[in-house]
């Protein structure tokens, strides 16, 4: 068999494939099995007259990327981070947004990212969208149009992105929350070490509850051990009895706090039922960056301690070629490879693959990726036969199936964005 091309006949049986063990209930990294794709593009246990010997090729369900910033993506060529710092990223993105973020600009860059994600094998994305007026009135209509255009290829969910000091129930944020509700998104906020942070969290959750929205926070994205808004979120969720899903992202300062303090916070997070998403590539890039000094820590949060407490942990792309992260291509296999290395997911539980598939789907309310009979044959097939082989190469020759049909995997050329990069 030419690995890059599968027969077009359906039903089709894929013999001798390797699948993640956690999807079968096995206590091992992988399992060898057979998968059959029926004429309707779904997995089946019925007989198939055409079979292909797959020689151990690894099959994953299409990925879920639950924390991205499609509106920021690919601005690096015109607005690079001057020093690689978090402050440099904030200032640079703010200036670029003010100067360039028209509807055409946002749409073109976001669509480019979506084409990359689709070719790499992602089927669902949650994106944060900068929503301080007047940008919200530009970006949200673009997002809704993109979501309609991408129906059937990538399921899209939007989250407003504002800072805690913008959350005033009687101010402009009320209109933003209404806009998010109309778009069926989630209410998002960057927490800050403000004296009245707990009150702002209560007001924020009341606004989310009134609109039936989930909450998604950027939390403690700093090396400062005094940054402890994660604990405040857990306390306020427990106090208010807020029942919609709550996601917390980054949580970097946990890794710099005294052990007892960090673990006590995680106990509260577990009790509150929060979902955590770690963004290891972006945090490795930004955190502990100082000129002419080697970083002393990786920026990643305490994912093993979280998982040991039953806290759902996912990993995601975060930023792509912008001042918060200079690299990336919306490729969840890259995220898996780098997360495994950065956070030492190897020599650990065999079910970390859920953090790139089923766990983020559950956090966002997307349909859970599955390899069970009846599930859509949305598959990523790699020549690798083991997890070690999978994570040792980029798997650039992978096969991606959507509804049982092989899709073209040509990636868009970065040169397409050149007209947007002219700043004069």
Automatic annotation (TrEMBL):
<dbReference type="GO" id="GO:0046872">
    <property type="term" value="F:metal ion binding"/>
</dbReference>
<protein>
    <submittedName>
        <fullName>Cytosine deaminase</fullName>
    </submittedName>
</protein>
<dbReference type="GO" id="GO:0035888">
    <property type="term" value="F:isoguanine deaminase activity"/>
</dbReference>
<dbReference type="GO" id="GO:0004131">
    <property type="term" value="F:cytosine deaminase activity"/>
</dbReference>
<dbReference type="Pfam" id="PF07969">
    <property type="entry name" value="Amidohydro_3"/>
</dbReference>
<dbReference type="InterPro" id="IPR011059">
    <property type="entry name" value="Metal-dep_hydrolase_composite"/>
</dbReference>
<dbReference type="GO" id="GO:0006209">
    <property type="term" value="P:cytosine catabolic process"/>
</dbReference>
<keyword id="KW-0479">Metal-binding</keyword>
<dbReference type="InterPro" id="IPR052349">
    <property type="entry name" value="Metallo-hydrolase_Enzymes"/>
</dbReference>
<feature type="domain" description="Amidohydrolase 3">
    <location>
        <begin position="195"/>
        <end position="404"/>
    </location>
</feature>
<keyword id="KW-0378">Hydrolase</keyword>
<dbReference type="InterPro" id="IPR032466">
    <property type="entry name" value="Metal_Hydrolase"/>
</dbReference>
<dbReference type="InterPro" id="IPR013108">
    <property type="entry name" value="Amidohydro_3"/>
</dbReference>
């Amino acid at each position: 068999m030419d690995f890059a091309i599968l027969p077009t006949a359906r039903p089709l049986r894929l013999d001798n494939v390797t699948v993640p063990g956690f999807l079968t209930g096995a206590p091992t990294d992988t399992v060898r099995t057979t998968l059959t794709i029926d004429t309707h593009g779904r997995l089946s246990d019925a007989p198939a007259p055409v079979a292909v010997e797959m020689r151990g090729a690894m099959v994953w369900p299409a990925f879920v990327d639950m924390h991205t910033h499609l509106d920021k993506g690919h601005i690096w060529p015109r607005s690079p981070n001057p020093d690689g710092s978090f402050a440099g990223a904030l200032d640079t993105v703010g200036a670029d947004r003010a100067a360039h973020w028209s509807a055409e600009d946002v749409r073109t860059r976001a669509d480019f990212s979506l084409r990359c994600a689709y070719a790499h094998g992602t089927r669902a994305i949650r994106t944060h969208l900068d929503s301080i007026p007047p940008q919200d009135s530009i970006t949200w209509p673009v997002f809704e149009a993109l979501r309609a255009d991408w129906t059937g290829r990538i399921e899209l969910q939007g989250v407003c992105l504002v800072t805690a000091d913008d959350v005033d129930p009687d101010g402009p944020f009320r209109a933003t929350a209404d806009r998010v509700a109309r778009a069926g998104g989630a209410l998002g906020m960057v927490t800050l070490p403000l004296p009245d942070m707990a009150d702002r969290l209560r007001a924020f959750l009341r606004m989310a509850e009134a609109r039936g929205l989930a909450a998604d926070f950027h939390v403690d994205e700093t090396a400062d051990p005094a940054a402890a808004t994660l604990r405040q979120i857990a306390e306020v969720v427990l106090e208010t009895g807020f029942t919609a899903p709550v996601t917390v992202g980054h949580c970097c300062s946990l890794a710099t706090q005294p052990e007892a303090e960090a673990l006590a916070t995680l106990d509260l997070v577990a009790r509150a039922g929060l979902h955590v998403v770690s963004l290891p590539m972006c945090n490795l890039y930004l955190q502990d960056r100082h000129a002419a000094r080697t970083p002393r820590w990786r920026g990643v949060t305490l994912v093993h301690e979280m998982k040991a407490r039953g806290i759902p942990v996912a990993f995601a792309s975060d930023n792509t070629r912008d001042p918060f992260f200079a690299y990336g291509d919306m490729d969840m296999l890259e995220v898996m490879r780098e997360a495994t290395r950065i956070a030492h997911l190897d020599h650990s539980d065999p079910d970390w693959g859920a953090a790139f598939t089923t766990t983020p789907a559950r956090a966002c309310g997307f349909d859970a990726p599955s390899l069970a009979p009846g599930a859509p044959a949305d598959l990523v097939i790699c020549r690798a036969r083991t997890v070690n082989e999978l994570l040792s190469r980029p798997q650039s020759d992978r096969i991606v199936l959507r509804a049982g049909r092989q899709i073209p995997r040509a990636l868009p050329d970065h040169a397409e964005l050149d007209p947007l990069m002219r700043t004069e």
